[in-house]
């Protein structure tokens, strides 16, 4: 956390207390809320023990929910369950090993070009190393396990949608340019059918033509994903298919860099204050239930 955010939040009644991950959480605090990006069995168990002993505290977010986003297949599975019109994901195939790589049916399951992504999106070195594949020679160069995702021309624009509780904000960023037959031929000649994203982005330009999705649409998707994933803080990357005008979610990330957003200090502070407000409302409801029960018993 950066100093301006800490200062701003303190002025509105929020104190941040560093957590020593080498010590049990039960020996630290007290905490109304725990925000973390730590992983590991010991840490997960420490959070679980803390949650049992402090049921009114909020953990942002549960390790089991975060874990789902570490796999590029499981992260996108909820999209089809949202029933939001004009929303989907690109066709994709999981390739577990080299034998499976040989049997990929590019004439049925996928059509070149395709994007090759590491299966795991856990922040490890190489987790975000992606390539464009335009032929079978390029496929043969991949190192499974990988996810092959259909490339879709989308005007060279990606919509990055940030979600912090009820807050939903979309920003437009440059993406891979549209890929023409000429570009595919160029990639074939220059690199035998496989080229990393950075090389493509610097070699081909496209205009940023897709318009921003409506806020109503974004809120529908964000609310559906928040409930399906069980997460408070995340963002999802979305493109607009040039052919169908459908929006396609291509990636979901946990606790992204909210500091990139304008006025993020107030956004995150409001988010934390809303967490506290929800806790107080829950306590009040529980107290009312106890009072009603005691009156009934009397």
Can you describe what's shown?
The protein has 298 residues and is of the alpha+beta class. 35% of the residues lie in helices and 20% in strands. The chain contains nine helices and twelve strands. The strands form three sheets. It has a five-stranded mixed beta sheet. Strands 4-7-5-6-10 form a five-stranded antiparallel beta sheet. A two-stranded parallel ribbon has the order 1-2. Strand 8 and strand 9 (167-174) form a beta hairpin. The longest helix has 34 residues, at 264-297. The protein starts with a helix and ends with a helix.
Describe this structure in a few short sentences:
The chain is about 35% helix and about 20% strand. The chain is of the alpha+beta class.
Strand content is 15-25%
Helical/strand content category:
alpha+beta
Rg computed from alpha carbons, rounded to a whole number of angstroms: 23 Å
Mean pLDDT: 90
Helix fraction, binned, reads: 25-40%
Terminal-residue CA separation = 52 Å
């Amino acid at each position: 956390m950066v100093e301006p955010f800490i200062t701003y939040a303190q002025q509105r009644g929020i104190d941040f207390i560093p957590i020593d991950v080498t010590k049990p959480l039960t020996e630290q605090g007290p905490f109304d809320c725990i925000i973390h990006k730590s992983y590991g069995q010991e840490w997960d168990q420490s959070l679980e023990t803390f949650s049992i002993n402090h049921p009114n505290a909020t953990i942002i977010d549960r390790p089991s929910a975060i874990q789902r986003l570490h796999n590029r297949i499981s992260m996108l599975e909820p999209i089809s369950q949202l029933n939001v019109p004009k929303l989907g994901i690109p066709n994709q195939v999981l390739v577990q090993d080299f034998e499976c790589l040989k049997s990929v049916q590019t004439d049925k399951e996928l059509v070149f070009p395709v994007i090759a992504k590491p299966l795991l999106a856990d922040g490890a070195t190489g987790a975000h190393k992606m390539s464009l594949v335009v032929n079978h020679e390029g496929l043969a160069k991949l190192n499974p396990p990988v996810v092959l995702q259909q490339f879709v021309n989308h005007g060279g624009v990606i919509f990055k949608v940030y979600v912090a509780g009820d807050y939903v904000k979309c920003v437009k960023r440059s993406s891979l340019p549209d890929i023409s037959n000429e570009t595919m031929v160029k990639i074939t000649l220059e690199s035998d059918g496989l080229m990393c994203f950075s090389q493509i982005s610097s070699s081909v330009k496209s205009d940023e033509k897709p318009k921003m999705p409506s806020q109503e649409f974004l809120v529908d998707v964000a609310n559906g994903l928040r409930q399906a994933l069980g997460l408070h803080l995340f963002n999802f990357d979305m493109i607009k298919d040039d052919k169908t005008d459908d929006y396609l979610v291509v990636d979901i990330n946990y606790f992204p860099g909210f500091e990139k957003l304008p006025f993020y200090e107030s956004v995150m502070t409001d988010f934390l204050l809303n967490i506290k407000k929800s806790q107080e409302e829950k306590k009040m409801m529980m107290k009312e239930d106890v009072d009603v029960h005691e009156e009934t018993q009397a």
